[in-house]
Design brief:
With 293 residues, the chain is an alpha/beta fold. Strands 2-3-1-4-7 form a five-stranded parallel β-sheet. Strands 5-6 form a two-stranded antiparallel ribbon. Strand 5 and strand 6 form a beta hairpin. Helix 4 crosses helix 13 and helix 5 packs across helix 7. The longest helix has 19 residues. The protein is globular, with a radius of gyration of 27 Å. The two termini are 26 Å apart. The N terminus is likely disordered.
Length: 293
């Protein structure tokens, strides 16, 4: 590349003579084969100033957003009681994607009596956790459904660990955008520990946000055993411990943290703004570069 240094020297001499550089004609188009391959060289960062001397046109901008972000693939993360379920429903309603929950997919396979479902059921009936390789089979079987391929999907609680996220990337299911709903610990504890259930009809209440009517109903309401503060904080710490690893395999430009506080409609406005940008390709360049490696 020593000849480039000579060219740089010539360009420098031209500037010393005081000749003013003519404005670049942005309407000028180089023919596909007219630059003798020099476009590949002079459109690299740092060499753009040499393009004019060799008659090389700027590289054409090719938008990559809609080329790979439709149908949309979305990931969503939130602590327990972080509002993930509400926002998933909103996303499905507006963007037409299919909601993908590992638990729901597993139950569907078992109910349908598929070979994968029978394999999973054998572990469930024995009171054992379903192994990760079986879960992966369930995920692949579900997303191969034509409805998921046509409409796209939102991964709801599918990638809880780095291993699971790496599997998703390896199988070509990497989300175009990953939404992380941020909710303070004390708010999470308040949301869950305040829940109460009426055992006579199963109706749910909340001591702070939707208290039961005073008197007989309030007196008979109970708290679920897993809604107490100790268990809530344990679940919260588990989520926080695994979150960084679960997001690690994804390009940073595809991970967006959103304030999860406020009324559901206020949180949805923030989520919707991010998704609208993702669909139009705002976060797409980094994602496409990741796929092209």
């Amino acid at each position: 590349m020593a000849w480039i240094g000579s060219v740089v020297g010539l360009v420098g001499l031209t500037k010393l003579t005081g000749k003013k550089k003519a404005p670049e004609d942005t309407t000028k188009k180089a023919s596909p084969s007219g630059d003798n391959g020099l476009g590949e060289i002079f459109n690299q960062p740092g060499l753009e100033d040499l393009r004019e001397a060799f008659g090389v046109a700027p590289a054409a901008f090719v938008p990559v957003g809609n080329a790979h972000s439709v149908p949309m693939k979305i990931g969503i993360y939130a602590p327990p009681a972080g509002g993930k379920g509400t926002q998933c429903a909103n996303i499905c309603d507006k963007y037409g994607v299919k909601q993908f929950s590992t638990g729901d997919a597993l139950r569907a396979q078992v109910k349908a009596g598929t070979p994968i479902g029978k394999e999973a059921k054998s572990f469930m009936d024995a009171g054992k956790l379903v192994p990760n390789d079986v879960i992966e089979k369930v995920i692949l079987a579900t997303v191969s459904d034509p409805a998921y391929e046509a409409k796209g999907f939102i991964l709801d609680g599918v990638c809880r660990t780095q291993v699971q996220s790496e599997f998703v990337v390896r199988e070509g299911m990497m989300p175009h955008i990953n939404i992380v709903l941020e909710v303070p610990d004390e708010e999470v504890v308040a949301r869950i520990s305040g829940r109460r259930i009426d055992p006579t009809n199963g109706r749910s209440y909340h001591l702070k946000f939707a208290p039961p009517p005073a008197g007989e109903i309030a007196n008979r309401c109970i708290q679920r055993s897993d809604d107490n503060e100790t268990i809530v904080r344990t679940r919260l710490e588990e989520y926080k411990t695994n979150k960084a690893g679960a997001l690690a395999p994804y390009p940073s430009d595809t991970v967006v943290t959103i304030n999860g506080l406020g009324k559901p409609a206020e949180v949805w406005a923030r989520v919707d703004a991010v998704l609208a940008g993702a669909k139009s390709g705002v976060t797409s360049a980094k994602t496409q570069a990741f796929f092209d490696q």
